[in-house]
Amino acid sequence: MPLQKISEFDTDYHNTIGKDIKGMGLYVQGTDEKIGTIIDAVLDDQGAFRYLIVDIGVWVFGKKVLLPIGKSRIDSTADRVYVVGLTREQAEKLPEYHEHTALDYDYEERVRGGYRTPSVESSAPLDVGSTVGRTTPSLDRNNYTYAQEPDLYDVSAHEDQTFKLYEERLVANKQRRKTGEVAIGKHVETDTATVAVSVEKERVVIERVTPEDAGKVVSAEIANFREGEVAHIEIYEEVADVQKEAFLREEVRVQKVVDKEIVEVEETIRREELDVDTDGTLKVNKTDRV
């Protein structure tokens, strides 16, 4: 089963598969730790992806290795490839890949041995027809198929992947803010007021009259001619004496009351929806669950 780089298998692969996987970052599934970059992809003679050529220089400087396609998860939206179940210790022991490395069965076995887990190796059957998990040269290379190790080559053999779809919703809170201030005080205004007061004023009335016995002769004793005789009369009048007095006119009560009303606030919210892209005539069942 000869292996080829993707550009050797299909010179126009950019238009065939769409987004180029080369150059995508390589991250550890679960920790989001970046450990390298995708250099190239390796296909079998049927065009099935078998390996990714990765540079794990973040973990081991300058080292390139083969990553079985079943140990990866490609996120083309984020331009990332996640490696599943690989530790730094495993990466250090993996056989190094060079530009002219012969991708033969022996080299692949060395690669597969670096990814096989002890549990798989110990539980593998020992009959000649089944070679799952066996890492020794006694494997029957003539009967080996990639289907025997789905954990390494079948991208659908892993546990179901769960996508979390998020959406935004409006959460109504209230904030108390100052909208104004009312100052209440007093000031004095001056008016001119008029009040009517009844007053009395005295005046002198001089009346000259002819007595009834006018012309009657009186004796010299009675007729006492004197100079300087003066009559004094005191004249009085009332004047208005107006005083001011204060009285309670009205009472002003100041208090705050709370008016309640319903206000509607409009805002744009986002929601994530699931996009399902299929290659070929595959039928995908979508089940809505609450």
CATH class assignment of the domain at 4-153: Alpha Beta
**CATH homology superfamily name of the domain at 4-153:** Photosynthetic Reaction Center, subunit H, domain 2
Radius of gyration: 58 Å
Tell how many strands the DSSP assignment holds: 7
From N to C, what is the helix and strand string? EHHEEEEEEHHHH
Largest sheet: 7 strands, mixed
Structural class: alpha+beta
Task: Summarize the amount of helix as a percent range.
Answer: 10-25%
Strand content: 5-15%
CATH topology of the domain at 4-153: Photosynthetic Reaction Center, Chain H, domain 2
User: What value does the average pLDDT take?
Assistant: 82
- Outline type: rod-shaped
In angstroms, what separates the terminal alpha carbons? 46 Å
CATH architecture of the domain at 4-153: Alpha-Beta Complex
Poorly predicted tracts of residues: 119-138, 159-163
Count of helical segments? 6
